[in-house]
Amino acid sequence: MLKFTLLAVVSIMFVACVGPAKNPNTNAVKPAAAAPTTAALLALETQANEAYIRGDGKFFEGMLSDKVVMTNGGQRLGKADFVKLIGSMKCSIKEGWSLTEPQMSKINEDTYVLSYKIAMDGACTSNGITEKQPSPVRAATLWVRSSEKWQAAFHGENLIVDPKATPAPVKQEESRKEASKKQPVAEPGTDALMAAEKSVWEAWKAKDAKKIEELTANDITFVNIFGAHFATKAEVIKDWTGSTCDVKSFSLKDGAGTFVSPTVAILTVTGSLDATCGGQKPPPVYGATVYVKDGDVWKWAFGFNSPR
What we know:
- The chain is globular.
- The protein has a six-stranded mixed sheet. A six-stranded mixed sheet has the order 11-10-15-14-13-12.
- It has helices at about 40-55, 80-85, 175-180, 190-205, 210-215, 235-240, and strands at about 65-70, 75, 90-95, 100-110, 110-120, 120-125, 130, 135-145, 150-160, 215-225, 230, 245-260, 265-275, 285-295, 295-305.
- Helix 4 (about 190-205) runs antiparallel to helix 5 (about 210-215).
- The longest helix is centred in the middle third of the chain and has 17 residues, at about 190-205.
- Strand 14 (about 285-295) and strand 15 (about 295-305) form a beta hairpin.
- The protein has about 300 residues and is of the alpha+beta class.
């Protein structure tokens, strides 16, 4: 099912005021750029949803980062694919749809994640197939500063379900055929990200809180395959070392890294599990991880796992 709640990226202007230096031999220090507010980013998301409902692909051409990564049913889509997809969609959504429960987290001074809940009642048609919109879903967007505006570099969303009712794999036969022909392009540096990702998965498998603490950034957030959002590092570690999943083994493949900036990267990867989660065997997982560079080390900062 081709379903995206789209993100609009509209410029947020900020003013950096520096008075004239009293001492001509002293260089004025430029203040740090202002952080976005949760309300401002949610307003942009609202505009994006409006554009999504009307199938306005052109609206997003200047709004998305050229490095944008979208995930959908085990696929990784770039900007051109995403804009084309939206332009081909026709939606009929009832009034009263909503974006609620917004939570913003910081990756670094120029990179933030906004997570929120979407409720919609209606259907969209793509490639001649009409599908009801999943609802409610948990969405998350990675926003990056580009000069004087914010752009979306990642977006994903999961249906919110009971962990005891593991979501079934998404059925998109034709899309999968196309995806199998078009493998994601891994940028140089992907190997380092994959090594970091494997270490995090190993720590999760072992329920090793100390190792997870070492491998992750100071502030981390996570959205799991059930649409649950964990807003703090303590919450993530508690979940990963808790009783939700009992993992015997795992494998990672199809890793592809995209470097949004010299210090921020997005890694998409497919994970297969021999495990029990919520009392059931989980489907293959399509993961998207945001890494931030700490010195010479890439650290896990945000993760979005979807059932493939």
